[in-house]
Amino acid sequence: MAKTIIDAHNVTKTYNPEKVPVYAVQDVHVHIEEGEFVALVGPSGSGKSTLLNMMGGLDEPTKGSVIIDGVELTELSENKLIDFRLHNIGFVFQAFNLIPVLTAKENVGFVLQLQHMPKKEREKRVLSLLEEVDLEDKIDSKPGELSGGQQQRIAVARALASKPKIILADEPTANLDSKSAANLLNIMAKLNKEENITFLFSTHDQRVIKKARRVITLVDGKVDSDVQQTPT
User: How many structural domains comprise the chain?
Assistant: First the structure.
């Protein structure tokens, strides 16, 4: 039996609760099993990024619970939540979020420095990750010297650095051309298949949606459909 790795249980997120509440997400209940490759889709304002952020512990639900690999995020102190994210969840964002003054090697290794990994072990891990995303020749390049597709692959390598169980990706292909997006998705699909990393995407991109094996559609903050499919 497959293991549930993400359980968003009756999750609600409201803004302006003291006056007229605005529901970003309303009573959403979603299970994600270990090793799934899932696209979370819906129109702008449907709540998909908000839900993704709550699943990653970047935002707290107004009501309900988020359980990641058996740990309820809403019960953790701020410091324990930061530590949990550091060791269990990788994030990939639309805007890359690389540190502009650091090289590719330093950006990827930043998480490992936070984990106090010894330098020699850290450098070996970073080189392995850059090889994984076909960028070992850009090890000393800074983000401004790289294309958008290369920057996003560096961001994926950074997300993988801590060997997370889950990668949450918010519109990761939005700023990429077709070739770069295809390369990135192929790398992610390979990691999903070979290392059983769970991927959850918030996306509008049909290229991502077609690669997913499960598509969850949100409309007005609620789950409208949840379907399995054969990726193409």
Answer: 1
Is the residue at 107 inside a domain? no
Kind and range of the H or E element at 29?
strand 22-33
HSE-up of 202 (CA within 13 Å, CB side)? Answer: 23
pLDDT tens, 29-60? Answer: 999 999 999 999 999 889 999 999 999 999 99
Torsions phi, psi for 68 (to 5 deg): -115, 115
Range of the domain at 207: 4-97+165-228
First CA to last CA across the chain, in angstroms? Answer: 26
Q: pLDDT by residue (tens digit) across 93-109?
A: 888 889 999 999 999 99
For 150, 175, 212, the CA distances from 102, given in Å and listed in that order, are 15, 21, 33
C-alpha to C-alpha distance for 169 and 147, rounded to whole angstroms: 19
Please, which residues have CB within 8 angstroms of residue 39's CB and are 6 or more apart in sequence? 201, 203, 208, 209, 211, 212, 214, 215, 216
Instruction: Report the pLDDT value the prediction gives residue 56, as an integer from 0 to 100.
Output: 94
Phi then psi for residue 26, to 5 deg, are: -135, 115
* pTM > 0.85: yes or no: yes
Looking at residue 75, which CATH number applies to its domain?
3.40.50.300
Please tell me the chain's helix, strand, coil percentages from 3-state DSSP, rounded to the nearest 5.
40, 30, 35
Q: What is the pLDDT, as a whole number, of residue 162?
A: 85
| Within-domain flag for 136 | no
